[in-house]
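The material for today's practical consists of a large collection of protein records. A record pairs a protein's sequence with a compact description of its fold. Instead of coordinates, the fold is spelled out as a row of discrete tokens. We will come back to this pairing of sequence and fold again and again. Here is such a record, shown just as it appears in the course material.
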Amino acid sequence: MVDKTHRKYAKRKPHKKPFPLARVIFVLALIGVTCFGIYAMDALDKSLFKTTKVIVNPTGSDDSDGVHGNETTQSDTPWYLTLVNRNNPIPQNYAITLTRVPGGELVDERIYQPLMDMLDAAKAQGLDPIVVAGYRTQQKQQSLYDEKIESYRNQGYSENEATRLAGQWVALPGTSEHQLGLAVDINGATYDIYQWLQENSYQYGFIFRYPKDKTDITGTAQEVWHYRYVGVEAATEIYKQGLCLEEYLANLSDES
């Protein structure tokens, strides 16, 4: 005989305990933190590529830090042909808008696309190019300049000689193309990257800025890694005629 009382209770479903409120709060908080983290990381990633406007020479003191006057008048010169060297400091109130390139360096946003096109072309050749230096602040340039002088001092050179030698490799602050945001230093997987750049950069508006045979004119020792944007037209003429930027601009001045 079946116990009807036992059968009645046997068919009942197990009693479910209510979900603790604390656990609900914990789960909701976990979801919130996760979503916020994803949003924050996305925002951080996007912020790396936001543009930033800076005034390179806000004081307009072209004759500061031992730099005296401009060798040429640049008021009518296109931005991409701005000449900056030991005799031509950064123009007064020169303003640029910077953007970040892969690798983290900053450049003038106007050269971003041609620079990316050039790097992509070099990458297609298996050269793995990377921008290792772009825009520099006055403070950064000063630091590099001081470090170079100190390096020569430590090698036994006098103060004057150390300063002279340092100036061949690191521009005096206020006279560096890196401060314009128009110059980049590029390295690659092999030394072949430099040969490729010398032969092809003009197609993208860049020039091999400091050739060995132009040191007397540029005032800078050869830097196979340093490339400067001047626009395709100027770069093509500079490349084909074997000029440096100073010579090209002098020719333009003579023609005008």
Remarks:
- Residues 5-10, 33-49, 58-73 have pLDDT under 50 and may be disordered.
- The chain has two domains: 19-48, 51-255.
